[in-house]
Amino acid sequence: MKKIMMTLAAIAVAATMNAQGYIGGSLGFQSDKTHNGDITTTSFVIAPELGYKLDDKMSVGVALGFGYGKSKNDITNAEAKKTTFDIKPYLRYQVLTFGKANVFVDGGLEFGMTKEEDMKPSMDFGLFVSPGISYDINEKWCIAAHLNDMFSFGYHKDAVADVAGAPDPDTRINAGLSTGGFNLGSLTFGVYYNF
Fold first, then answer.
1. How far apart are alpha carbons 80 and 115 in whole angstroms?
2. Which of these, 59, 114, 55, lies nearest to 81 by C-alpha position?
3. Strand locations in 74-121, DSSP E?
4. Residue, of 97 and 157, whose pLDDT is higher
5. Closest by alpha carbon to 128, among 81, 93, 89?
6. Using one digit for the tens of pLDDT, what is the confidence trace for 120-135?
7. What is the pLDDT of residues 80-89, one digit of tens each?
8. Measured distance CA(183)–CA(35) in Å, rounded
9. Distance of CA 34 to CAs 71, 77, 114, Å?
10. Distance CA 42, CA 28 (A)
C-alpha cells in the first residue's frame, strides 16, 4: 500500500512539474453609428480565460465573458442598456507556427445570457469556431487576437418584456458562417501567462 501511495504521489508531482497551464484573457470594444448616424451603440467585453496544454498542438480551456452595451438615439435621447454573460469551454488546435507567431483555431460550446432593461433574459446555447493568432513574447508571456465566432450553430430564446401578460418568447435554431464582414467588434485582444 505504501509503495502505491508513493508511486501516485510521484506521478502527481511529475504532472505538476510538467504542467503547461495558461491564464489570461481578452478585451473587446466596439462603437457604431447606425440609422444615418442617429443611433450610437457602444459595447465592451472582458473574458478571463484558463487553459491547459495537452501537447504541442492541442489545448483545452474555458473562457468566461462579461459584457456591457448601451445604445442611444440622438433624436429622442432614448437609451437602452444590456449586460451579457457567457461561458465557453473549448478545444484549441495550433495550425501553423512561424517562429514566435502561432495560428490557431478554437472550437467548443457556448452558453450565454443577455439581460436588457425591463426585459427577461434571452438565452443562447451552441457550438462555435473562432480562429486566432498569438505571438510569444518570451517563454511565459504571449499576446493573442481572436476573430470571434466565425462559424456558429446554436439555439436562441428571445427576451420578452418583464411585465404581466407579455407574449411567450420566440425560440430559433441558427447556423452559419459570419457574413457581416470584418469589424473591430468581432476582434478581441488578449494577454496570456504560461505556467
1. 11
2. 114
3. 79-98, 101-116
4. 97
5. 89
6. 788 888 888 889 999 9
7. 898 999 999 9
8. 18
9. 10, 15, 21
10. 11
Burial 36-61 (b: 16+ CB within 10 A, else e): eeebbeebebebebebebeeeeebeb
Helix (H) and strand (E) counts for the chain? 1, 10
Distance of CA 145 to CAs 34, 174, 188, Å?
26, 26, 6
In a 10 Å sphere around its CB, with 0-12 CB exposed, 13-18 middle and 19+ buried, how is residue 187 labelled?
middle
pTM of the model: 0.73
Residue 153 has pLDDT above 90, yes or no: no
Question: Which range among 45-49, 146-150, 155-159, 163-167 shows the weakest confidence by mean pLDDT?
Answer: 163-167
- Nearest in space to 83 (alpha carbons), one of 56, 44, 52: 44
